[in-house]
Amino acid sequence: MKYYSPRLALAVIFLFPLIWSGWASVQGPEGFTLTHYRSIIGFGEGLATYVGNSLALSAMTVAGTLIVATLGGYAFARFQFPGKNLLFLAALAILMVPYATILIPLYVLLDYVGLQNSLLGLSLVFVMFQLPFALYMMRNSFEAIPREIEESALVDGAGSLKVLLSVLLPAVRPGLVTVGLFAFLASWNDFFAPLILLSDGASFPLPVAVVSMTQRTFGAIDYGVLQAGVMVMAIPCLVLFLVLQRHYVRGFMSGALRG
Amino acid sequence: MSSPLSTAPRLRRARALAGWAYAAPTAVIVAVLFIAPLVLVVVMSLHKWPLLGPARPNFPANYTKIPDDPLFLDSVLFTLKYTVIITVLLSAVALGLALLVQDRRPGVGFFRTAFFLPGAVGFAAAALLFYGLLNNDFGPFGFLGVNWIGSPNMALTSTILLVLWRFAGFNMLILLTGLQAIPVEVYEAARADGANRWQIFTRITLPLLRPTLALMLILSITGSLLAFDQFFIFTNGGPDNSTVSMVMVVYRNAFFRFDLGGAAALSVVLLVVLVALNAVQMRILRGATTR
Question: I want to staple B45 with a disulfide (CB 3.0 to 4.6 A). Which of A256, B138, B222, B264 is the partner?
Fold first, then answer.
């Protein structure tokens, strides 16, 4: 009891806000209700639009991060080429630069190339922010594979791309899951980058859309609907985290992470 | 027998070319989305750069006017105050939690997950959650009669509660990796020598945890100096602009005053300060690791 009671009390404190939010999202004046969820479906451009935007954004970010980091990690782990160390350091330096510092010029830059107010442009920006962690993770994953495995395939005349796809990719799958999970959580949840880089309400992902609910200048805020919005954003992350917890923790163990 | 990965020069050149091809997407992303914006932000800071319309050079006006912006100066002081408070509290809470769940008793996995779970929720969603939770008409704490965001001090306190709730588990996880790297034999030897729990904590756990603690501090300080979401969403800078962070001023200059040049100059200052700070902290961290 002496061991469990303080831990249990703390667990209740940490879980309480989540449980309260879920409860408040289905609570009306006369008890249980789904009206908050019904009203959020029709909110603004429609919940389906925002969920669709968030899903598209996350899918593009995860796919982009996996492709770039897999190829890059392979290159950094297995090949010698001029400029290799410089490029790796440059990618890690992304960690050193404040978010705001780089988003203001990106706002101008994406406009030049016609990607302003575009989910594709935003997802490329997310890929860039994910790169230091993803590249580091994938390079280490490739380095952990014994060289003999691919050497025998190379001797058999397979090209390096074929070796990557058929021999190495299955071996680095845990690394891919970790990198994909981090990329999903970052792109699904980020608020600041879409706030700056998107201007059209119809292209907002969930966080920006739901926050805009609180910042309307007139009309009362419906707090029940707001908590329904919180749940729509949080539940996919909670489920993914609970299922893939092991992979998330491995990301921590690798030591390279960004708060 | 020589390895096929390191034979004739022709083969080595082919491998180098292949390496470049695989690294090309990384190089493009780094060049176009990282290096180019870094150059551009410096160029922008040297110009009067409106949101719409042509830019024209005005160096050094964007920099010299920084001290004339009282809101920015206030935001620097406020952000520093917030950073100190959050870093102290967050490391204390995270270390306490990590110590509570470092052993392998049954059920410890549940506690770890419970403490971390808020960290799986996005920060914007967490801020909105607290926006309702700490609203006295709607949330469960109305009976306390506390006005959670009514005064500058309460707004800061409430924000700190939000950030502790959201990030304590995250930092606990970092510290836990450090705690678990300490060999059991070290503890056993200390216990055999008759050390009590407090002595073990101060003479063994803390010194051996120093590198991990340093990493946690770097992440906490950097993250807090760049705070935005919590103050933008939860307190909206209020009451009376008392919770306006530095990044909020950058955002306001760019998108409410349409002065991208001024915002770029602030960004450059922020960048220089943060890179310098990171370099100093890295040096301390490295010192802590090699000791």
Answer: B264
Among candidates B49, B121, B226 on the partner chain, residue whose Cβ is nearest the Cβ of A100: B226
Q: What is the mean pLDDT of each run of 10 residues along chain B (291 residues)?
A: 60 91 98 97 96 91 95 96 97 96 91 96 97 93 91 96 97 92 91 92 92 88 94 93 96 93 96 89 69 46
DSSP codes of every residue in A106-173: HHHHHHHTT-TT-HHHHHHHHHHHHHHHHHHHHHHHHHTS-HHHHHHHHHTT--HHHHIIIIIHHHTH
Give B101-110 contacts, CB < 8 A, sequence gap 24+.
Answer: B101/A7, B101/B172, B101/B176, B102/B176, B102/B179, B102/B180, B105/A3, B107/A4, B110/A11
Which A residues in the span 24-53 are in contact with B, Cβ-Cβ below 8 Å? 24
Instruction: Answer yes or no: are the C-beta atoms of A197 and A205 closer than 8 Å.
Output: no
CATH architecture of the domain covering A52-198+229-253: Orthogonal Bundle (1.10)
* A36 within 8 A of A225, measured Cβ to Cβ: yes
Tell if the CB–CB gap between A259 and B220 is shorter than 8 Å: yes
Q: Residues 198..237 of A with a Cβ closer than 8 Å to B: which?
A: 207, 210-211, 214-215, 223-224, 226-227, 229-230, 233-234, 237
Residue of B nearest to A96 (CA): B275
Q: Domain segments of chain A: what residues?
A: 52-198+229-253
Q: What is the pLDDT of residue B289?
A: 56
Question: Which residues of chain A does B179 touch, with a Cβ-Cβ cutoff of 8 Å?
Answer: none
Q: Where are the domains of chain B?
A: 9-45, 65-290
CB contact under 8 A, B26 and A91: yes
Q: What value does the mean pLDDT take over residues A6-27?
A: 97
* A259:B270 CB<8 A: no
Q: Does the complex come out with an ipTM higher than 0.95? A: no
What residues of chain B, 56 to 85, have a C-beta less than 8 Å from chain A?
Answer: none
CATH level 2 (architecture), domain B65-290: Orthogonal Bundle (1.10)
- pLDDT of B278 reads 83
Interface touch A252/B41, C-beta < 8 Å: no
pLDDT in tens, A22-57: 999 999 989 999 999 999 999 889 999 999 999 999
Indicate yes or no: CB of A80 within 8 angstroms of CB of B23.
no
Say whether B113 and A253 touch across the interface (CB within 8 A). no
Exposure pattern of B233-272 as b/e (b: 16+ CB <10 Å)? bbbbbeeebbbbbbbbbbbbbbbeeebbbbbbbbbbbbbe
pLDDT digits (tens, 9 = 90+) for A178-213: 999 999 999 999 999 999 999 999 999 999 999 998
* pLDDT reading at A232 higher than 80: yes
Q: Which residues of A touch B26 (CB under 8 A)?
A: 68-69, 71-72, 75, 87, 91, 131, 135
- What DSSP character marks residue B237? T
Contact yes or no for A18 and B121 at CB 8 A: yes
